[in-house]
Amino acid sequence: MTDLRKRMLEELERRNYAPSTTCAYLRAVDEFARYFNRRPDQLGPDHIRQYQAYLFRERKLQPNTVIQHLGGIRFFYIKTLQQSWSADLTPYPKKVLHLPSILSREEVNSLIEAAPTPFQRTLLMALYATGLRRAELARLKITDIDSARDVIHVQGGKGRKDRDVMLSQNLLEVLREHWRSLRRKPAVWLFPGNRWHTADHPISTKVIWTACREAAQRAGIRKEVHPHTLRHCFATHLLEDGADLRTIQILLGHRDLEETTIYLHLFAATPERYREPARLSTACQESRHRRRYEVDAAAARRGGRCDPRSRRKLLRTQP
After folding, report:
1. Domain residues of the chain, as ranges?
2. Model pLDDT for residues 81-99, shown as the tens digit of each residue
3. Is 158 marked active-site?
4. Is it true that 3-80 and 105-265 share their CATH fold?
5. Catalytic residue among 74, 134, 231, 232
6. What is the pTM of this model?
7. Active site residue 231
């Protein structure tokens, strides 16, 4: 480990950054230095600008991924080297908001039932029933299951925040069945690692990702499905059932309510509800035109014309 890498690691640890963020920032600076084949403290704003263009042009990275790379480089210059950082010279790219794919309730049921093994079925059901991130699910402990209060304690979630999520009776029964099926009863982790789930460490997040992929293939679901898809489905279906955004924000562990508002765009019934007033408005207009024609026809049969004031009066009185 070089002196610069050690200093950057110490700065990250001093600020209690999450292990995933620490690895991402260290890797970003390492790739930046290797691209120019020079020490990172010998590179400046011009090099950062060239590297940013390279990430977009040649590596075809998404804007949010480039932002993460720049975040690591920015941390290195400001916190490790104690140098200034000009936002004008090294601007962050504009973020792109992509709406995630959402499964219907029937598709979610098909996905869970198509899981190859009971263990994978338990993982998928837990993801959907709680809205947990895959890293949070993988590191659940036995003591996190509070059956007396019907909640699951999430410790050290994203941003090092704890929260409680709902525990349904159906999920509780599935978790109990999972516990009874384990060859060796774990002392700490709810989902122990290795092939037979007897290790003293939890499963990796890749196990959960694989469970989603294989179940989606077996269920014949053509939409893009990954662990976070079930988290999106959890929130969207809650919104469809009448839950308010603030409640969903707390359950998901979002720092800002603005993060949760994306589910307003994913509300499955919204397009139909938007079209319904248009259809009603068209029907009302057609009915009004028909009544106006009937009023004019009645006046003609009486041998006269219906002036505009009388017509408006008749239209208001008729159903």
Report:
1. 3-80, 105-265, 270-317
2. 999 888 887 888 888 778 8
3. yes
4. no
5. 231
6. 0.76
7. yes
